[in-house]
Amino acid sequence: MTVSVASAVERTAAVEAAVQPVLAVKNIEVIYNHVILVLRGVSLEVPQGKIVALLGGNGAGKSTTLKSISTLLGSERGAVTKGSIEFRGQRTDQLTPGELVGMGLVQVMEGRHCFGHLTAEENLITGAYARSISRSQLREELDRIYAYFPRLKVRRSSLAGYTSGGEQQMIAIGRAMMAKPNMLLLDEPSMGLAPQIVAEIFEIVRDLNQKEGVSILLAEQNTNVALKFADYGYILESGRIMMDGPAKALADNKDVKEFYLGMSSEGRKSFRDIKSYRRRKRWV
Q1: Given phi > 0 = left and psi -120 to 50 = alpha, else beta, which region is 83?
Q2: pLDDT of 272 above 50
Q3: Which of 123, 129, 237, 268 would disulfide-bridge 242, Cβ 3.0–4.6 Å?
Q4: What pLDDT does 137 receive?
Q5: Distances in Å between the alpha carbon of 282 and those of 180, 255, 260, 268?
Q6: Does a structural domain hold residue 11?
Q7: Do residues 271 and 163 share a domain?
Q8: 108 and 124 both lie in a single domain
Q9: What local confidence, expressed as pLDDT, does residue 243 receive?
Q10: Cα(212)–Cα(101) distance, integer angstroms
């Protein structure tokens, strides 16, 4: 009987661990410079092994949300003043960005931030800096990254500063993957890139999610492509979550189509129509 009860407890604990989200943001408020309120009551979850899209226009608070999670706000005189953030069941507010990387959470910043004076391969190697691995293991890790980004293998000896925007984004994601994360925060990976390159990068991101089991929180203005690859989505507007749901349901939602994609039952709207619609904010 004792063994049966113990087994039941273990099974219950295993089920709870499986259900528990890898990341839980709970009703956070963020203030910059002690006076500027940027996020108000933002809550979201990222289940294990899923891609979650955080959508919204420029200035909606997407980057601030990601920096709150990765504890990078302090470098910009920002602070989480209310609520809590938990990664793998542990609160992150007392952890440094480096400690979070050690736990498996890595952020790819907006704008890529490659080391321009280093080669593509040297940039990738910096991603493994926090890991104690041998030279042969390092080569295996590089080969793993090159399997996802074959273009980088061709360009591995080129200075990152002389590679294209798409190649720099691949370097930034590959560098993050060298840290062996179980969760990635991707901030605007499509910014400034041609549609063909965006599609290529998002396909790779989906491969990383499916083959490596990496959970992903994706902050993106490109609603159409983000919802195509995500499992779930949150729409952020002026520092608040206005809508959330399964990615397909959001993509099919009439308000989302009209407000973010410029589409309505009458066809594509003009820029002036979209600006007018923005002022109405029908779902608020």
Answers
A1: left
A2: no
A3: 237
A4: 93
A5: 42, 8, 12, 18
A6: no
A7: no
A8: yes
A9: 92
A10: 17
Q: Which of 147, 115, 146 has the alpha carbon at shortest distance from 129?
A: 115
Non-local CB neighbours of 236 within 8 Å, separated by 6+ positions: 42, 54, 55, 56, 60, 61, 62, 65, 242
Structure tokens that stand for 32 in this block: 């910059």
pLDDT one-digit tens code per residue, 204-234: 999 999 999 999 999 998 899 999 999 999 9
For position 203, which CATH number holds? 3.40.50.300
The answer to whether residue 159 sits within a structural domain is yes
**96 shares its domain with 195:** yes
DSSP 36-63: EEEEEEEEEEE-TT-EEEEE--TTSSHH
Q: In what order do the strands lie in the sheet with 23-32?
A: 36-46, 23-32, 78-87, 90-91
Mean pLDDT on 246-250: 95
Give the separation between CA 31 and CA 189, rounded to whole angstroms.
Answer: 25
Q: Name the more confident of 54 and 16.
A: 54
Q: What is the predicted pLDDT for the residue at 213?
A: 93
Helices 195-212 and 135-148 pack at an angle, to 10 degrees, of 130
Q: Is residue 279 part of a domain?
A: yes
Neighbours of 76 (CB within 10 A): 12
Domain carrying residue 104: 21-252
> Would you tell me how many other CB atoms lie within 10 Å of the CB of residue 284?
9
Report the candidate in 44, 39, 17 with the shortest Cα–Cα distance to residue 216: 44
Residue 259 and residue 247 share a domain = no
Closest by CA to 66, choosing from 82, 47, 89, 87, is: 87
> Are the C-beta atoms of residues 191 and 215 closer than 8 Å to each other?
no
142 and 78 part of one domain:
yes
Does 127 reside within a domain? Answer: yes
pLDDT digits (tens, 9 = 90+) for 117-129: 999 999 999 999 8
